[in-house]
Amino acid sequence: MDITLIIEAEKHWTGVFEVLAGRRWRISSNHNVRTSSYHCVSYTWGIDRAPNVFGVDGNVSSNTRRSLEAAIASTKRAAVSDQAFWIDAVCVPREGVSRRATLESMGNIYSSARSTIVVLQSTTWEIISRDARSNEPYSEIQLDQLNEDNWINSVWTYQELVNARAVSLTAVGLSSGRSIKGDDFLNCIGFSLDRYKRQHSLSALAIRRRYPVLDAFEDSIADWMVAGYMDRSMLACLTGVAGRYCDPARPTNRMYALLGALTQVASWGAVDENVSQLVQRAMGICDGNGDFSYIYTTNQTQDRSRKWRPDAESDLLPVLRWHIWGDGQPGTTADGIAELQEMVRLDLQTEPSPEVHAHVSKWLCDFAGFHGDQLGRLEAIESELPRTLRSIGFTGSAVCQRCRTGFVLTQEEIQPHETVEAYVSSSIRWAFGTPGIAQVRDGGTDNVRYIVVVHVGPTLRNEPEQSVLLL
């Protein structure tokens, strides 16, 4: 794949250029993404526009030019020899198939870059510009300000971060060109949140409510730290972009960000720029990779053939907005039939063992701040689990079913005349349970529908695994 870069203009260059950080720079096309050495610039657009940068037609963000200049200045101070930069407003083609292919290839572009340079606004820089390697965490006021930062909350930030080989941070308007290592800043975020949690005796859910943006950002940091040796599942990518700010005027941005997090392969033959086509593209990539974790979403399943497959008319949204571990949901598909592997069948309508009851009770206490004496009866857990899961994105039924290994909630209501077989994944897991799928049959007929389920309970590592066919 070829990309456009910003390079230093030659002395004899007479075309369009911009003077940035005391030097002349120009646009240069047809650079192979895998063999070129360059830096990606990550920043937020904001609402203000500039009429012309590098002679590019159409309005671009007023932050583009100064963010690029800040990135150039930071590499100059660090004595970085590679002086080529990729920045979206200038380097993404303006229209046509090449534009769509570039937007679908963000994972390829960011993962191939030598580094990603994050350009922050001055208010955020003032907080983090002290020595981020010190043992002093951010104050409550500083955490409040960081929780409102536009870059941390941007839908693009997740894919830009998890694909980066190295991250540095700088800011606009710094005459010194100073930067700090991304590792130091990201570690300080986690350390500060952990200290605040302990100082105020807060549960994990209370921290998520207090600092929703920063807490979710900490999960993104975790995905970045393991990116070099662990694949990201589709469900992890969906969780990573869910809830982040996406320009309402550009609803496809969320799906482009998802594709960037999902694959580092360049796009060939880009689809039309609409949500439905991009959802289909994402699911098709997962089919090819053998990862079917995209079924664990809030989307309705299709009505006719492939009843198990989520409807593509809207964004794919994860069944829960909580960090999930694992390489994906292994499976295969042929002739519209999916075979999910590494699944565990649940024994519904059976009582959880005392050990399972104690395990779930302890999790609710740690996660949501309950006291153990509030959860002594199974009915109390059945009452509190739906409310707790709703606080992290669950939108399904409030009816909680028991099983031998825990408790089960379904994304849709089960009718009295329907029979249910529920299976959960043994390959991906939240800290408190696993996603799964239920085959719901209409009485004694052959009519079947598929419903996503959430199982809350201990790890099912000792349970027998099997494959499940979805028609």
From TrEMBL:
Record Pfam families: HET
Heterokaryon incompatibility domain ranges (all copies): 38-143
Stated name of the protein: Heterokaryon incompatibility domain-containing protein
Source organism per UniProt: Baudoinia panamericana (strain UAMH 10762) (Angels' share fungus)
Higher taxonomy: Eukaryota, Fungi, Dikarya, Ascomycota, Pezizomycotina
